[in-house]
Design brief:
alpha+beta; Ferric Hydroxamate Uptake Protein, Chain A, domain 1; 8 strands; 34% strand
């Protein structure tokens, strides 16, 4: 039994290294890959009251935030961290306050939740992005 107690930390360390290596491989295979060249994208903002602002853009940008920064009349505000990028709190001066009423700006790509935030979302030609005012109970604007 004493022999197994000595091997246990060694096996635990090897297991931890193997799991980390597997996670690194998975991230490398699934990370966002930007598309080079000109892309045409659409960006909609659906506000709390259900009204929508619609923007179309032709861009060389590779990530969504870079493209949005080039759209006149569309402003995003929030907090930025190195790990996650921009956490959108206000769009065009309209705030989604999670602490107050459980609201946030959901980012959708072609109607489905994006896998990445606005700073890290790689864009492709023809994609349609939506910022949807959403309540934490799953209800969007206009409800």
């Amino acid at each position: 039994m004493n022999r197994f107690k000595r091997l246990s930390p060694f096996l635990g360390g090897c297991t931890a290294i193997a799991v980390l290596a597997l996670l690194l491989v998975i991230y490398t295979l699934t990370r966002p890959v930007p598309m080079a060249g000109t892309k045409n994208i659409t960006v909609d903002v659906v506000y709390k009251d259900g009204t929508t602002d619609h923007y179309q853009l032709k861009t060389e940008a590779q990530f969504l935030l870079e493209a949005i920064n080039a759209i006149p009349g569309l402003t995003l505000e929030g907090t930025t961290t190195e790990e996650t990028g921009l956490m959108v709190i206000k769009i065009n001066g309209k705030q989604a306050d999670y602490k107050k009423d459980g609201a946030y700006w959901a980012l959708l790509c072609d109607g489905e939740p994006c896998n990445y935030g606005v700073s890290q979302q790689a864009i492709k030609d023809g994609e349609h992005y939506t910022f949807q005012y959403t309540l934490s109970d799953g209800k969007g604007g206009g409800t």
